Amino acid sequence: MADVRVFANAGELGEALADEILAAYERGDGDFLLGCPGGRTPLTTYRALARRHPGLPRLVVVMMDEYVGAPVDAHYSVRGFALREIVRPLGLAEDRLWLPEAADPAAYDERIAAAGGIDFFVLASGASDGHVAFVPPGSERDARTSVVAIAESTRRDNLTTFPSFTSLAEVPTHGVSIGLRTILDARTLRLVLHGADKRSATARLLALDAFDPEWPASIVHEHDDAEIWLDEAAAG
Under CATH, what is the fold of the domain 3-235? Predict the structure, then answer.
């Protein structure tokens, strides 16, 4: 079972996680691959990184997913999010941003492997179904990057993540997403949940001590260097 750390609030958690990422970055000397989710959960971490160290030339931002066919200027585009919240604040060149492509999902895993693998993976969990990236409940532990039908429960979570969606019908139905095997192959995993809206998801996750396919975020329990980071509101 993954170890658990609890912080006073999301800001304190983000500051501490940024420090841990920077410490891992400084221990290496080649490209540092940082696995990154989009959405609200990691924002305190990304902003703390930019405040602490806006110049990280060896950093490669490896996003977890993208909506199929999403234009970069769409309010829900993962590429657009990464450019606004990670790449530009850190002063990175745009070619340091990687995303999976729906036309050739397998190429993403090949690219990651050729670069030596993901050094540090920040994960976020869906509130209602424990999804990570677009990996839906019932997914296989050894699945790799693929185009997936986004679970309705995940799409409903998106209504909160992206307030510009006015109805479920506006939320895309398909995405290209890394798989659980890609996550497991990373050297370090840190799963973040904060806020009272993640309290039920936290309770479900902590009730498990091994991977349950019906709660994808539980993959952290299968990794040798994984921790679950919570704030007090999520921990209850």
Answer: Rossmann fold (3.40.50)
